[in-house]
Amino acid sequence: MPDIQAFRALRYDLGHVGSLSDVIAPPYDVIDSALQEKLYKRHPANAIRLILNRAEPGDEDDDARYRRAAGYLKNWREEGVLDRDAQPALYVYHQSFSYGDATLTRRGFLCRVRLQRFGEGNIHPHEETHAGPKADRLKLMTACRANLSPIFGIYPDAENHAQELLEREVVGATPLEATDHLGVVHRLWPVTNLETIASVEAQVGPKPLYIADGHHRYETACDYRDRLAANGELSPTHAAHSVLAMCVSMSDPGMIVLPTHRLFRQIPELSSAEMENKLARAFETEVAGKGAALAPELWAELELAGQQGNFAFYCPRDDTWVMARITDQGLARMAEMYPSRSVPWRSLGVSILHGLVVDTLLGAKGHPAPRYVHSVEEVVDGLTKGDTAERDAAGMRGQGKRFALAALVMPATLEHIRLISQHKERMPAKSTYFYPKLLSGLVINPLE
Predict the structure, then answer these.
(1) Are 29 and 103 in contact (CB under 8 A)?
(2) Which residues, in sequence order, are bridge partners of residue 409?
(3) Minimal CA–CA distance to 126: which of 149, 151, 103, 157?
(4) Nearest Cα to 414, choosing from 254, 216, 261, 221?
């Protein structure tokens, strides 16, 4: 069972840094070079210098930036820029944001979670990981000896009992507050009441915990712990037995999962008639209309239907959209292709899109990674302006080379995460996009 623990966080001293908004940063893996530069300029103690330190002229090797991050962390602690809380706490964390016409607040709490290798306990992944990001994060963790950013875990709690225990503790209390670059408002309250902490630990402990975001950081924390153990440096009470985590009830009203649509590069371009012909034996199809600007209307239709096997495909050869709905034949084809996979995995929209449609029916297996976008406005922008990343990389101006295919795809749901995780399977990459992202810099978990 997950072991939830209070801890003494490192936090920014506002007397030194002024506004908390100036020193926080989003997770490293959503920061491009332009945002990195912007955060560097925002404040000399911005957390970007810890989580994504940049290469500098005169660096003697590629690892210099990790050592530099560790130097910043050490200096900021010595100078009082970062100060460690006197008492162990669970940290109530609210994120208020706009989605469509609504304003939502996602509520959770930051804590330490005792590490378990996936498959050995009640902590479950849902997405695949890759060696490169884990090697990068391990170098940073080894240099800094700290969890600089939380993983994101979700747990079943139909009545939100654990969170409500904490909410009662912070009624009327003034939070620490920061606003990120997307306008999301983040609020934090430490809860030090030992009775409440024990009650939350008892409530959450028996429940499964599903990793929503931060798989690479979680596996890296396990690797770091095991490295210390191999070197004889891991005592039974060492902080490296645990990882910094944000825990959110799957029933929280602010929990949403956004789609990740695809803009494909370097695959054969098709007309709508050619697309319908290729999909014919696995999908029912219909031509939906012309023009990239039709994407919002088609997405609204997909959302209303709420079916994982429904897609909208943009065919650039004739500037036309095709709507597709998987048939029983298509589902049977997925079962033939993936006999060892569970029904929930085979029924997932991204599994069908990549395995059946792109790799098999379109014959484009091994294609370059698509551009992933989360709103239909970004889809329209990409189809209108072309592949600007390819254009900029080539040093060209004007329109980018047009994308070969666009696909609107339904996001996995929280129930998909639960079912697929319990089958000990992992979803294809970019199956989920949890919004908003958790901040780096609100709390740091020292691994000392």
Answers:
(1) no
(2) 311
(3) 151
(4) 254
Helix-strand-coil split of the chain, %, nearest 5: 40, 25, 40
- How far is C-alpha 184 from the chain's CA centre? 16
Cα angle, residue 291 at apex, residues 287 and 294 outer, rounded to 5°: 75
Q: From edge to edge, which strands make up the β-sheet containing 283-290?
A: 283-290, 320-326, 310-315, 405-409, 261-264, 371-373
> Cα–Cα–Cα angle for 163, 167, 171, nearest 5°?
175
Instruction: Tell me the one-letter amino acid at 92.
Output: V
pLDDT, tens digit (0-9, with 9 covering 90-100), for 406-434:
999 999 999 998 899 888 898 888 888 99
Q: Are 405 and 396 within 8 A, CB to CB?
A: no
- Distance CA(9)–CA(143), nearest Å, equals 18
Tokens encoding 44: 């000399």
Rounded Cα gap, residues 249 and 209, in angstroms:
10
> pLDDT, tens digit, for every residue of 139-198?
999 999 999 999 999 999 999 999 999 999 999 999 999 999 999 999 999 999 999 999
Number of Cβ within a 10 Å radius of residue 38: 15
Q: How far apart are CA 189 and CA 177, in angstroms?
A: 9
Q: At which residue do the structure tokens 């009441």 appear?
A: 193
Residue 80 CB coordination number (10 Å): 10
Instruction: Determine the residue type at 390.
Output: E
Q: Give the residue among 427, 431, 31, 434 at the shortest CA–CA distance from 260.
A: 431
What does the DSSP assignment read for 164-195?
HHHHHHHTTPPPEEEE-TTS-EEEEEEE--HH
pTM of the model: 0.90
Say whether 286 sits in a helix, a strand or coil. Answer: strand
Are the CB atoms for 336 and 426 separated by under 8 Å?
no
Beta-bridge partners for 434: 257
List all residues 6 or more positions away from 203 whose beta carbon is below 8 Å from its beta carbon. Answer: 157, 161, 162, 165
